[in-house]
Amino acid sequence: MDIAALCDRIDRLDRDIHAFVGEADRRGRLAKEAAANAARWSGERPPLYGAAVGVKDIIRADGTKTRGGSALPAEVFDGPQAVVVDRLRAAGALVAGKTVTAEFAVLAPGKTRNPHNLAHTPGGSSSGSAAAVAAGMVPYAVGTQTVGSVIRPAAFCGVVGFKPTFGRIPVDGVIPNAASFDTLGVFARDVAGVDLLAAAVCDGWEPGAWGTPVLGVPEGPYLGHAEPASLAAYERHAGLLRDAGYDVRRVPALTDFEDMRRDLLLVNRYELVRSHADWFPRYGDLYRPETVGAIREGQRITADEYAAAQQRRAATRRRLLDVMDSAGVDVWIAPPAPGPAPRGLATTGNSVMCLPWSDTGLPALTVPAGFAEGGLPLGLQAVAGPGRDEALVAWAYGLATAVA
């Protein structure tokens, strides 16, 4: 790894894109990391040796400060390095730096811009991670998804994003948002990159041969949240997949989508309050208004309301998996967002198309799928059954080729 070239590239491109959190001596830190790697692996090298990885600024990484995209003192978040970073470094990777996040991975956006059009959002909350990969600053990045924070920015920026099954990557060392949903995920330029990263950071990764999946179109109120142009593109993608030989089945599903949406928000906000129970009373005046509003919403939710919503969520998940099983569907295909990246930086876009898959903890992946009018990227989201992460990534090679 040419550390000078890497840092020169980040310095040059990030003047406009703002994907990385500023760092006083990135070059010096990376030079030391690279030297330590070279000393550690003088012979056979691990799979990510020398690879530069951006790490979302809610994930602790030794040698860097963690601020959660906030104005709070960095020492508030001190603690052991995140397990996911342990695994990346054990595989030989270098932490290129912290990538910009929405404040605490909630709603208040960072300053990152979309590399395809600087006037548009890159998505969020893992905005810097997606943009850094899309701009070619680094080949890989790590983010988190609570509702749509990996899949949506990956689609907006035209890269591959993968959110594994809930719990497949330990979240130790990550600033929490909502414990029932928070999931670590990865970004790469192509499916092969995601495959390499997933093998390094997921528990018990076991590649295999999986055959050709049956694809499902979840017909019903969920798809009605996609913009007309995006929905038309999605139908074209489904047609391309049929032409490529896939069995694409239209299956009534997610008929309870609005109830699912309500319960996810309720659980999310209630758990956000618990995540910030220590920090918010002490530093609430430093929080941005969007985060304060979300916490205030959560404070109005009772324990009984939360428990009832969790029970309904469990029943909703069972119904969705029953539909998937009875219809013989291996992979749901769906738009990753209502449309391409919206203009402006005031929000990170709408996560509604990711919501059911995050609510149910299923593994999801998005691949680039052409461009919208105006040149912004589109993606295709693919969602498999619980624990079928290896199969989903393996199947993604063919899906990506069909819709590229």
Automatic annotation (TrEMBL):
GO molecular function: glutaminyl-tRNA synthase (glutamine-hydrolyzing) activity; transferase activity
Entry EC number(s): 6.3.5.7
Enzyme class, first EC level, given as a word: ligase
Amidase domain segment(s): 4-392
Gene3D superfamilies for this protein: Amidase signature (AS) domain
Pfam family, one: Amidase
InterPro entries named among the record's database cross-references: Amidase (IPR000120), Amidase_dom (IPR023631), AS_sf (IPR036928)
This protein's name: Glutamyl-tRNA(Gln) amidotransferase subunit A
Species of provenance: Streptomyces smaragdinus
